[in-house]
Write a structure and sequence with these properties.
Layout: H1 23-42, E1 57-63, H2 70-89, E2 98-104, H3 109-121, E3 127-129, H4 134-146, E4 151-153, H5 159-162, E5 169-171, H6 182-190, E6 199-205, H7 211-223, E7 227-234, H8 242-251, E8 255-258, H9 263-275, E9 281-284, H10 293-298, E10 307-310, H11 321-332, H12 341-360, H13 365-372, E11 377-379, E12 382-384, E13 397-402, E14 405-410
Parallel strand pairs: 1-2, 1-3, 3-4, 4-5, 6-7, 6-8, 8-9
Antiparallel strand pairs: 10-13, 11-12, 13-14
Helix pairs in contact: 1-2, 1-11, 1-12, 2-11, 2-12, 3-4, 6-7, 8-9, 12-13
């Protein structure tokens, strides 16, 4: 089989950050492997694997390494690779070294289907992990279901994912993404009447991840009396959103709630800056919650005041988080604040495999599916459990860019700063 991009952990590696294979990386991986081994053993005793199971544990993954979702796809790749390197540093899972087969889907729903079919039927991988976005997760998860594979997926939580009722799917984030904007709606509705926006606009990407978030927030704010002045779903191929911004500016809404992915979030902000128009408040469902790529793409001087939602933070006290941060920065450089949450989500998929293996002594797909449907499981994303459709039961956190940093600001018990209400940087 000829893959566009193949990355096999344990073989020669390519991709971002892999020129940093130093002693510091090895030390950080060892520390993290000890933490994860401790977490796994606490879930139950590990039964010895038979000699026949010492073959590599092959995990197939399709990721958007090129195309519209490539920033997030590469972040997921870093998380998957870091988990594999970490677990291999401690001997693998049940004595089996993890080997990743990562294939580029070019951000295409058609290509992602081909990739998973080939990974399962031609490469005969033992397990699969999911791609980035609901757009790709929906068709990919159907392939996994057809062949009886568990589908642990880090970044596909739109309504279309769960409405399939597949049973083999597990979304490794705190809640379905349609609930991602709920925390922002909660915050707006918690404000004193004098501080609340009275009008709003709702642009959204034509994407099963993005548009439902804006629609859900709109329904809640309309019910509270906040008038909708503009709503528009723009096509996925749109790269210049100046016309959308011009139309919103003509309506003069106090608030813009945008259902976005990454590239369109950047385009929306850049169009606002270029046209010198800013609402009083701006919420972007995705893109703005990327601490590394958002300021690089819209300009570091343009981020302050923008709201988004998040599921993972460097300061989280979740299972293995400090060791994860140390290993990540040793492997890829940067600081804790520059780690994209998508990397933590992908890493958490691996944590779940380890925990199930530790509890059951098995690595087969049927065991993964049946075992994950009971109990609560500790990951970087927090304590996770799922309903029968694969939706987790926890909640997101509201984040805001303040002083050039993305900080949790609501609810108060999870906040590191109070929200800041003021003009966006480019406002006149």
């Amino acid at each position: 089989m000829s893959h566009a991009i193949v990355s096999r952990t344990g073989a020669t590696r390519g991709g971002p950050g892999y020129g940093r294979a130093t002693a510091s990386v090895a030390g950080a991986l060892t520390a993290l492997s000890l933490v994860l081994a401790g977490c796994s053993s606490s879930a139950g005793s590990t039964k010895p694997a038979s000699a026949a199971t010492h073959a590599p544990l092959k995990i197939g993954i399709s990721l958007s390494l090129t195309g519209d979702f490539s920033d997030s796809g590469k972040s997921a790749q870093r998380g998957y690779r870091l988990w594999a390197d970490t677990v291999n540093a401690s001997g693998g899972v049940l004595g089996r070294k993890v080997q990743l087969d990562v294939v580029d889907d070019t951000s295409s729903p058609t290509q992602v289907v081909t990739n998973y079919q080939n990974l399962i039927t031609k490469d005969h991988v033992d397990l699969v992990f999911g791609p980035f976005s609901s757009l790709l997760t929906v068709p990919a998860s159907q392939v996994a279901k057809r062949y009886g594979y568990a589908f642990l997926e880090p970044a596909g939580g739109g309504p279309a994912v769960f409405s399939q009722h597949l049973g083999n799917l597990f979304f490794v984030q705190p809640a379905p993404v349609v609930q991602q904007g709920d925390v922002f709606a909660d915050y707006i509705l918690s404000l004193p009447a004098a501080q609340r926006p009275t009008t709003a606009a709702y642009p959204a990407l034509d994407d099963p991840f993005a548009s439902p978030i804006a629609a859900e927030v709109r329904s809640r704010l309309e019910a509270a009396g906040i008038r909708t002045l503009y709503q528009q779903i723009y096509p996925a191929e749109a790269t210049d959103l100046s016309s959308v911004v011009t139309a919103m500016a003509a309506k003069k809404p106090d608030l813009v709630v945008a259902g976005t992915q990454s590239a369109d979030a950047y385009a929306l902000v850049k169009a606002m800056v270029q046209l010198k128009w800013a609402p009083k408040m701006l919420y972007l469902s995705n893109g703005a919650n990327d601490p590394l790529n958002f300021p690089k793409n819209v300009g570091a001087g343009n981020v302050d005041g923008i709201f988004s939602s998040g599921d993972w933070f460097p300061t989280a006290t979740t299972s293995g988080n400090p060791a994860f941060i140390a290993a990540y920065t040793a492997a890829y450089g940067g600081t804790a604040s520059s780690i994209d949450s998508t990397s933590a989500e992908a890493f958490s998929c691996g944590q779940l495999v380890q925990e199930v293996a530790a509890r059951t002594g098995k690595l087969d797909n049927a065991t993964l599916i049946s075992t994950l449907h009971s109990g609560t499981w500790q990951t970087l994303e927090g304590a996770l459990s799922w309903n029968s459709d694969g939706a987790a039961h926890a909640s997101y956190v509201l984040v805001q860019w303040i002083g050039g940093a993305m900080l949790p600001v609501y609810p108060a018990d999870r906040a590191q700063s109070a929200p800041v209400l003021g003009k966006l940087p480019w406002a006149g």
